[in-house]
Write a structure and sequence with these properties.
- 2 copies of one chain form a homodimer.
- By secondary structure, chain A is an alpha+beta fold.
- The first copy, chain A, is 47% helix and 20% strand.
- The interface between A and B is medium-sized, with 35 and 35 residues.
- Strand 6 of chain A pairs antiparallel with strand 6 of chain B, so a sheet runs across the interface.
- The structure holds a DNA duplex.
Chain lengths: 145, 145
DNA sequence: GTCTTTGCAAACAGTTTGCAGCTGG
DNA sequence: CCAGCTGCAAACTGTTTGCAAAGAC
């Protein structure tokens, strides 16, 4: 379970296990497909009647990223978001619907191919990358016509 | 010249030609390879002894984007930057050196190929996209060894 | 008991806005 | 002349920080 991973990771690095950290991690574990801003995490905590200060959300979400449990991404300009860093997928690359905001992860295989192309053609060995496509998702395309 | 294009574009849309707009456009025209934040544009104006308020820089840079003369991009998380929107290139896609910050534009041909791949494999017709790779540029790689 | 973490409020950075006065057409 | 533009300061949003009190171990 995600909570066990969190506890282990915190212990390993001599951080303390606190209710706040577990709660925030839980928020992300509950909706693994979501890309949440600090504000949204904070809202979800309030919905659950958990009174955690926003400063703590900022600190925790940053900590969880350092631990490798979350990943910092950026979908719309200027707003930082976090998502669950499932170790099975990179999950960093998204296709974003400009109508409904739906965000779909680009499959790993495709990302690898792209990476290969850039490496070959630019003589640049990337350590990290960030690919975003904007367009209409199949749903919104349908409704439009 | 860039200034003529600006004047024409402003006239066409019934905006006024002002010294501030010309000056800010000039800043970008002078270093077509740069990706400037509002702060940097403001600094450059001060260096030239032009007393333009920061609010005007914000407003102007946004206007110039609307006119299609600049393009809004985002290189580091959370800071919005603008670059000259040279009509000959898309110029939206960058390879960024994590050491020196050098930013290189990914060639159009390569971008087109990537676009094609995503369209084919995901059944998603992109209207726009944004590709960023992070790594070490050849210079920094050399100095490291 | 000690050292970390939290909550709060204040500070901060980047950006937007309302308004009076200035200016281009 | 007068609508659009600018400068200024104040407001706002998202984020960070200092510090006393609370909590983990």
């Amino acid at each position: 379970m995600v909570n066990d991973i969190l506890r282990k990771e915190l212990k390993d690095r001599n951080f303390r296990i606190t209710a706040q950290r577990e709660l925030i991690m839980k928020i992300f574990a509950e909706s693994p497909e979501d890309h949440l801003s600090v504000e949204e995490v904070y809202r979800k905590l309030l919905d659950k009647r958990s009174r955690i200060s926003k400063a703590t959300v900022y600190r925790t979400v940053e900590l969880l990223s350092d631990l490798g449990l979350l990943r910092k991404i950026e979908i719309d300009e200027g707003i930082v978001r976090f998502e669950l860093a499932d170790s099975n997928k990179h999950g960093k690359h998204h296709v974003i619907c400009t109508d409904c905001g739906e965000t779909i992860t680009i499959p790993d295989k495709l990302v690898e191919k792209i990476e290969e192309m850039v490496t070959n053609e630019m003589g640049f060995e990337p350590e990290d990358h960030n690919i975003k496509f904007y367009g209409k998702c199949s749903n919104c395309k349908k409704n439009q016509k």
